[in-house]
Amino acid sequence: MWLTDAQKIGVALTSFGALFMLLGVILFFDGSLLALGNILFLSGITLIIGPQKTFYFFARKQKLRGTVCFLGGILLVFFKWPFFGVIVETFGFLNLFGDFFPVILTFLRQLPVIGHVLSLPYIRTVADRLAGSRTSIV
Predict the structure, then answer these.
(1) Mind telling me which residue stretches traverse the membrane in this protein (predicted)?
(2) Alpha-carbon torsion (106, 108, 112, 118), positive or negative
(3) Which of 43-57, 95-109, 114-128 is most confident?
(4) How many other CB atoms are there within 10 angstroms of residue 57's CB atom?
C-alpha cells in the first residue's frame, strides 16, 4: 500500500482525531477535546482522499442525511452542547461510513491476534451482525 506524504499525514491526523474524540467522550464529554478531535478527523480525511473527493463524498444525495447530522453534531459540540452533539454526530457517522464496516471487519480478520478473536464462534456471529455481513446459504 503506497501512500504519499500528504496521505500519511492524513492517516496520522485522522487517528489523532479519533483518539481525541474517544478521550473527549471518556472524560465526560469534554468539549475542547471533542472539538479538536472533529477538526483533526475532518482535516485528516481531506488529506487522505483529497479535497474534491471529500466534498463529493459528503455532498452525495444518498449521504445527505448523514452529512447534515454529522456536521450538525460538530456544530453542537462547537456551541457547547457536547453530549447532544456527540449523539447526533454518531448517528451521522454511522450513516456516512456504515458501508465501510464489512470492509473493515474483513481487514481486521486478517490480522494475527484480532483475526483469531473475531473468528471465535459467538464473536463471529455478533461481528457479522454488527457489520451487516451476509453469509451464503451454500
Answers:
(1) 9-29, 35-56, 68-88, 100-123
(2) negative
(3) 43-57
(4) 15
Nearest to 73 by CA among 43, 31, 27: 31
- Residue 43 CB coordination number (10 Å): 16
Query: Residues with Cβ < 8 Å from 99, sequence gap 6 or more?
Result: none
- Return the CA Rg of the chain: 17
Q: 65-103 b/e with 16+ CB inside 10 Å = b?
A: ebbebbbbbbebbeeebbeebbebbebbbebbeeeeeee
Which residue in this structure is represented by grid cell 455532498?
59
Domain ranges of the chain: 5-98
Assigned C-alpha cell, 6: 500528504
Q: 0.85 exceeded by the pTM?
A: no
